[in-house]
## 1
Amino acid sequence: MVTIDSLHGVNTKTIEQLSKLGIHTIDDMLFHLPLRYEDRTTIKQLAELEVGDNTMVEGTIQACEVKSSKKRSLVCMFEDDTGTIMLRFFHFYPSQREKLKPGTKLRCFGEVRQGYHCLEIVHPQYELVDYSNSTPDLAEHLTPIYPSNSKLNQTVFHSLIDQIFAKYDIIDYIPENLRTEFNLLPLLEALQTLHHPTPQIAPKLADDKHPARFRLAFEELLGHHLSMYSLRASSNEHSAACLNNAGILAQALLTQLSFQLTHAQQRVIAEINADLRSINPMQRLLQGDVGSGKTVVAAVSALQAIESGYQVAIMAPTELLSEQHTRTFGQWLEPLGIEFTWLTSSITKKKREQVLATIASGQVSLIIGTHALFQKDVEFAKLGLVVVDEQHRFGVHQRLALRNKGNQDGVYPHQLIMTATPIPRTLAMTAYADLDISVIDELPPGRTPVTTVVMPNTRRDEVIDRIQHVCTDEARQAYWVCPLIEESETLQLQAAEETATKLQESLPNLKVGLVHGRMKAKEKEQVMEAFIAKELHLLVATTVIEVGVDVPNSSLMIIENAERLGLAQLHQLRGRVGRGAVQSYCVLLYQLPLSEVAKSRLGIIRDNHDGFAIAQRDLEIRGPGEVLGTKQKGVMNLRIADVRRDKDLLNDVVEAGKIIFKDYPEQCQALVQRWVKEGLNYGEV
Ligand code: ADP
Ligand code: MG
């Protein structure tokens, strides 16, 4: 990869600014596409100008003076053979006035506006022209205008792009036969068209489906797809812990449960079991809507590993969820005589050392924790299975780090990755090409859909009455969620505390608790346990309860400032109620005024109960980075392609990917490196 500093005229400051725009290499520069173009290829006659034209004109200055009417400005009368216009400068130097003296010939570019007397161009870009030698050349193609920041001038981009086209071989990594098969332009042609279009082509570039843009979007998606696909292939070469056993423990768990597994749960358990018996490590994504019962599936898989003498690590994104898992798994596994432990970053040093010792010695079979599980000093005796819950909260790197942690003499643990974010199939094929996918597409029987209402914050009192009724007359419990909206965390917590205090004042005969992310683990646990034991009626919480929390007696959820949250997040939060057979309610409170878009988004949540439909709508509104929760994590951060707009292309990308991976290994690597900066590290973490 050639870095940008190999080009002429790039100093440290420029490098710094370019890197802020994500431009480090010449490839990055080539794929930094223009926002728009200016036409400096022809000169328009002054008589033909129309208001709104962005155009080049050429003529002679007739007069130049400083006018100080409303606002001081330097004004020049400017004429050619056909007419006269004004050039106006509000900011100018005295020397400029000298330069623009009558008789001077200029070539100007700018936007034509209607002035008081005649047409004018305000602050034109201009150059003095000298016809004594020869007529100066006009641009051959349109002038690209690049996305930039205030510190970087367009001329920098122009110079870089010109140098790259002149000096470097731009290599097309998509072989010609595939270009023909998938109808793709050669790379150089696509890039030249986009950076330097002719005036005839320019209007067509606005079309998203233009072949030049199509070619680049295709290549970008292909690069991302190949990075995941290669990852998959490399893990297929690893050997895995062999978990072939009679399933006695799993059977013992199932007979002890108070419910029957749904068909969907049974099906995915069978899919997982087949993987666990394979000689290669399982890489499976388990998708299932909120409340579909993923935890018990994880427990059955865990027992499969434990019965074969291996350890299992279960990683949850929040401490709260990991605590809850500790309770759930405790209930299920204790009767079976299985030892387990809990590891998060908040336990004391001494306790931590003890816990680490039991993990390293193999004394405990099941380890539940947060990302603390893959810290350096954690050593497993014999890790056979890693379960990652609520995957959307983790990055690819974290998941791979945990996998590699379990690598013992080239034997890797199996991985089960669980998510409640239903990912549309085409997107999953590209973003999660390294994973097989199982779906729990059925909720346990007897659930009643949550009735959702959308209300302005001004109707708070009615909501408080409702809490009173639900918690006393119906002996149910309720959540009140205050999303984090203040800038500072301290203010956020203050807001949550204040809400809790106010609610307690309004509901004197109810017990109100508060839980938030900054509390000590012990405190959080106490509050949650009190809520589970029904000692608290109302739990005020920040969005820490978003993932996984399962208290079936709660039947009312209020979410404040709902308009500020993503649809998937609202759906997750709402999934905390409606876990039993009783009718549950979710109230989405919003601040007035509410924009039309916000209104329709809340409407989507009110009218849909299916996480898949919601995710689909979310994808349309917000884009894949948000839906996958990977925006900050560098996965599928697309520069050119857009999964919504380019979804028709994904099937072809997968097809082409297969061929390139098999027959063109060098090109495959180069494509990954070009498009996914972290790509090559995936194999190493
Ligand atoms: P999620 O998929 O959101 O993680 P959980 O695993 O927390 O869902 O399950 C939600 C609730 O449903 C739990 O209380 C769990 O015990 C219960 N549950 C799971 N499977 C079944 C089933 N087949 N029948 C009835 N209840 C079930
Ligand atoms: Mg869960």
## 2
Amino acid sequence: MAVTSPAPADIELEAARLADTGLAGLGYRDEELERAAKLTWKINRLKKEKNAVIPAHVYQRPEILLGVADMIGDSYKLAKLGAASPATTIVFCGVRFMAETAKILSPEKEVLLPAPEAGCSLSESITAADVRALKKKHPGAPVAVYINTSVAVKAECDVVVTSANAPKIMRKLYEKHEKVIFAPDAMMGANLAQELGKTVGKDLIVWNGTCIVHDNFDASSVEFYRKMYPGVKILAHFECTPALTSVVDYIGGTGDMMKWVDDHKASSYMLITECGLGDLARTKFPDKVFVPMCRLCLHMKAVTLERVLSALERPSASQRIDVPAAVAARALKPIERMFELSEDRSAA
Ligand code: 13P
Ligand code: SF4
């Protein structure tokens, strides 16, 4: 049955549901809830009609996370869950490299990216030719690339990593190799070197990419906030600068940051990352206090409810993710290697 338009009573009910998900607590007023309700009502019905699933990264807008997402998580969790889903269509609320990874893992599914221009500064910082040049310069060194990369770059590497498993996988690579190449995030590379006791440029070769959201937080303000909020626990994403990560209480990916908050009892927390994580944490842990310190990712925030609806109703050619089979087959191997190594299913 085709999805029609909601009646006023349907919108009222849907707006009340959205308010209860935590959106009201985040400051959504009645008119914003009503605007969102008109869209989420249709999206949730179309999803069922089209056997579609919506994975959403934690940096997505709250109305997407709480209104229409079927699975919420970090890059690793979404890559796993999206592939395991029985749905025939994936509407990926995230950025291009995430949707492409979903397509590589599920070539038989239709994968749609509501905001086709949603890229990532890290992904755009390196090409397949750059990886080939690194390999030529450091023969024999295995190449680990961050999942925030293009399909062509993944196709050139030995193993893909995410913020949830990079230290573990890198440690395994060092069991058999003296030198490892890590690309493209220079900040994450420096943080990994610190954690693994390696030296950048000697036994850990890094590329010079950075995340435009995380590379610019001011480390000196940490001391100021510690005085202002005694007992505050400060967490920073792996993509932040070593100057910052060296003065915080915890460094990790978004999934591990949320787990850390769940596992601790502190007077307050500061999540230094994209603002979406703090919004989600406020709804997940309503009794905890979160001190704001975040920045928006223009790529992540390019996804809107309107664009999710348009992708479901009538996907444009640019919203459809298509990865040529030959390069997808080459990129699949290092992604599967990541699953094996992070789940201890094989040695490096
Ligand atoms: P996570 O996998 O930690 O969610 O990171 C993805 C990302 O793009 C961080 O900027
Ligand atoms: Fe890329 Fe940074 Fe945005 Fe994550 S937050 S998608 S790393 S630009």
## 3
Amino acid sequence: MPRFFASKKPAQRILPQHIGIIMDGNGRWAKKRGLPRKAGHSKGAETFRTITQYCQDIGIKYLTVYAFSTENWKRPQDEVNAIMDLLRDYLHNAFSHKDDNIRSIFIGDRQPLDEDIRDLMAQAEEGSRDATGLTVNVALNYGGRQEIVQAAQKLARQVKEGNISPEDIDEERFASALYTAGQPDPDLIIRPSGEYRISNFLLWQCAYAEFVIMDTLWPDFTSKHLDEAIEIYNGRNRRFGGI
Ligand code: FPP
């Protein structure tokens, strides 16, 4: 069911249940200031924390952020290291999320990540398992195609083991083999920094999402921009293939 803004927001606005954000523009933000790219990622990580808290405050149930794609390994090693270090910081602080009632989930292929990061991810997930507020999916070494392929492999193994037949595979079962199993699809996907691309983000789940592209670079993104995106979302006429 749609949710409504609390008292300080204009009445009657429908809150998306699940928001996806492609956190783009960190590099350009740094370049504009003559700073190294990692300074942009650092400011982007701050923005991520602010927006997560804001989503929790206004009652969003799911937020998925694209932090590192399967293609981002192609970047210079020191930039990759800087992003991984920011992630370590986030993971160390994620424990305090227990008090915030925020659940952390990591989506993507963990295998190539450093062992200390994988351990911290598991601890953050375990420690926030019972949170009932916002669920934050951090997409890390994530690619939509890779997610679909691993789901197909998982289901193929179940068929091979004789647990299901090929005919048992319908959309619902397929969705339950994705990293986002059990979660509603995103209603709204926001891409700051003005690019009109999906970049391999939530390919299955975005089937009926509303896209909002904003010119602001991610490090400059504020709760006001999120409100604006929600307002644009409210102006859309969602028909899900109907009339
Ligand atoms: C895209 O901007 C951004 C990334 C590839 C990294 C995003 C990472 C963070 C915001 C920080 C770490 C995250 C967490 C969860 C702590 P870009 O570098 O492609 O920007 P550009 O297009 O301007 O070059």
